[in-house]
Amino acid sequence: MLLVSIFTQKYGSLSKEEAEENAKRVEDVVFATANEHYEKEPDGVLASDKVSAPRDTVFDISKGARSFIEVKEAEEILKPLKEPGNCYTKISFSNRSFGPEGARVAEPILASIKDQLKEVDLSDFIAGRPEAEAFEVMNIFSPLPWKSCLEELYLMNDGISEEAAEAVCELIPSTEKLRVLQFHNNMTGAKGALAIFRLVVGCEGGIALSKALETCTHLKKHDLRDNMFGKEAGVALSKALSKYAGLTEVYLSYLNLEDEGAMSIASALKESAPSPEVLDMAGNDITAEAAPIVAACIAEKQHLTKLNLAENELKDEGTIQISKVLEESHLQLKEVDMSNNSLGRSGARVLAKVPVQKPEFKYLNINGNFISDEGIDEVNELFEKFPDRLGSVDENDPEGGGDEEESGEGEDDEHELERKLQNLEANKDE
């Protein structure tokens, strides 16, 4: 029934279709007006009067060519970090070298956002500076009161000496949530190493290494390459490594561990860290004496994809023991580097059998050894169906092994080593 009012009498009535069309037009106008109002005043404050928070969480100035950062450039490039309400949780100063003046510009800016940072990359940030300037920059950055929310810290290739390590250890008073610490390519000796480990836990004085790293149970990647710690530090480090259950990558190359340090670390890793994918112990003067313990450790790591034992002194005896362990299982293995280990023909022959049954295998490096021409031919024959898996042997020296190579020509040495390996397995079962 149509209702009649004074308005319909005066202005007339609309049909149902006309009314729906007009209602739709009104609705569109209302929504457009509301949207415009919200854009200007989202929460009752005019947008022009409200500071908008950027959505970027990564502040990275590392791109491009390496350059020195002085005062004016530091003031310009660090402006985004000064904006109120910024959301940066990661900063990277890598590849940009700070002088003392530039560091003084950065110091108060970094202090203002210290509570929100989770990842700090200061690798290569004093590259090319004179030692006095570099040390001054370290001292400028050291008092910054970083919070315990820091999860990743990168200090690679900074030329950090023992004295500089003492300054660096004051960077972070507490790092309970630290998951990644990369410190390779520095010049830190044993004293500096202890200072860095004090950094990890934020304790003052010399804390025993095993105790120090007990608090960093969340570490998944351990990278201490190119720091001449020595065998004593290796033994101490092994006590810390025994606390890590979740390690997936272990980089301990060029630490001057020698057999004593390497055996301690291998023993610790054998009982902990069940699933590492990378094990790198290159350049540590490891000999065949340590091979049984290293091999026993590797035998437990079935998730290994990369094994690097280059630039040691494993020779045929040590290499065969490790090769036999790898040959039996380790189906995920992709890369093995046994270059520069004084290998002869017998060691190379046994090692070359490892990739045959590995569907994921990509690369074997046996360059820089003392393999005879006959041995090289045998290796090439084993790789005949997949030559791309074998690295170059251009630096192999068939004359370098002397009389030792002659003793490896036959099968007797290989069988003797197999007997030693069986004894090793028997002792392990006991």
Care to give the gist of this entry?
GO terms for molecular function: GTPase activator activity. This is WPP domain-containing protein. The chain has 430 residues and is of the alpha/beta class.
Query: Could you spell the SSE succession in H and E letters?
Result: HHEEHHEEHEHEHEHHEHEHEHEHEHEHHH
Oligomeric state as shown: single chain
* Overall shape: globular
- Amount of helix: 40-55%
Biased composition (Acidic residues): 394-415
Protein name: WPP domain-containing protein
Main location: cytoplasm
Region (Disordered): 387-430
Structure report:
By secondary structure, the chain is of the alpha/beta class. It has helices spanning 6-11, 16-40, 71-77, 79-82, 100-112, 131-141, 162-168, 190-201, 209-212, 231-241, 258-271, 291-299, 315-328, 345-352, 373-382, 403-406, 412-429, and strands spanning 58-60, 67-69, 90-92, 96-98, 119-121, 152-154, 180-182, 221-223, 249-251, 278-280, 306-308, 335-337, 363-365. An eleven-stranded parallel sheet has the order 1-3-5-6-7-8-9-10-11-12-13, with no helix packed on it. Strands 2-4 form a two-stranded parallel sheet. It is globular, with a radius of gyration of 32 Å. It is found in: Cytoplasm; Nucleus.
